[in-house]
Design brief:
Distance between the termini: 95 Å
Number of helices: 11
Helix content: 40-55%
Number of domains: 2
CATH superfamily of the largest domain: SGNH hydrolase
Strand content: 5-15%
CATH topology of the largest domain: Rossmann fold
Oligomer: single chain
CATH architecture of the largest domain: 3-Layer(aba) Sandwich
Shape: elongated
CATH class of the largest domain: Alpha Beta
Strand order of the largest sheet: 6-5-7-8-9
Largest sheet: 5 strands, parallel
Number of strands: 9
Amino acid sequence: MSRLVRIYTVVAVQLLNAVLVFAAINVAIVVVQLVRERTRAVPAGAPVVAGVDFAAYTAMSREQVRQFLGEQAAMQMAGFRYEPWVLFRNPEYHGQLLNTNAAGVRRTRASRAQCADPIRVFVFGGSTTFGYGVADDFTIPSHLQGHLERRYPAQCVQVSNYGQGYFFSSQEFLQFSNLLKAGHVPAWAIFFDGANDTYQLSGRRDVPFFSDAVQSLWEMRHRGRSCPLVDWSWLPVYHVAGAIRQHIWGAPLPNPRSDYPTPVPDAERSGAYVAERYKHNVRMIRALCAEYHVQCRFVWQPTFFDYDRALHPAFPYAGQVPEFWREAYERVRAWKANDVLYLGDLFRGVREKVFVDNVHYNERWNGEIASRIADVVDLGTPAGARPRL
């Protein structure tokens, strides 16, 4: 009996040691990964939201901001939903300050006048259009609703917010065409772009933000079991083993890639590519607008690179404006088309807080941008009239 006890004790001790060594290896790998992440340079313009600046808010109380941020976090935890053609969209969410419908369309300030056939204005864009950081009533489309009603009191206007996180002009073109095919034809369509186009297109890849992750899932399906009986990918050593296997045999283990695209160094990015792709998208959207008798306007947005960052300590980027960013903005600024409203330099000389984080505007400046957009929306223009290009 004592011999069996000794054997059991030896085996148990060896197994415990093996478990401890295995755990230590995984902890060491995690530490190395954390150090590498801390020291890795973040490409300028990455759509990463930094800490919220409570002092930047102009209409929402601190309590409302806290409540809104909790709702925004809950919506983000729900995650994007799959959407054909454009790849993803906002989830449905219902809160007190943040609301989206079943199609992921954010609620806009209610129309003052109710009628059976209002003048419909669709606004497309990324997270700044959606209105990250502010309540439903303070987004750019909500402010636009108010501006148009004040300027055209005899008209019945309905503004819809089709902004989606990470969207840029290529996705908006598809989003717009899908709405038209479904019979949702507005009188006016506004496309608010700039930051996402510059960041995503400058890497010379015209694809939606999560394309790498979706591609890896497709590859997993065709290289083996897409849903293994046991998923070991949460173990750090699993990824090290995959790297070793790839180095020796050239065959990486099937594994979903990160949601974030592979970073492209600033020196390899191209502002010229951004401007050319954007112009092609505008041309295609114009063709749809002409065919469906929709008045379209294109707005190029301001960003923190043309703003006094000393007013906002949350900005993670210091120094000069990256060359690819400057080039993209200068080329769009030089584009003399009267259906394109360039607001890229709107924040120059502004001596007040503009951003609630390092990407999104506060309530007051959403209203100012909406006012500039309202300047180029003439609700007396007959349907189908084309602007001089």
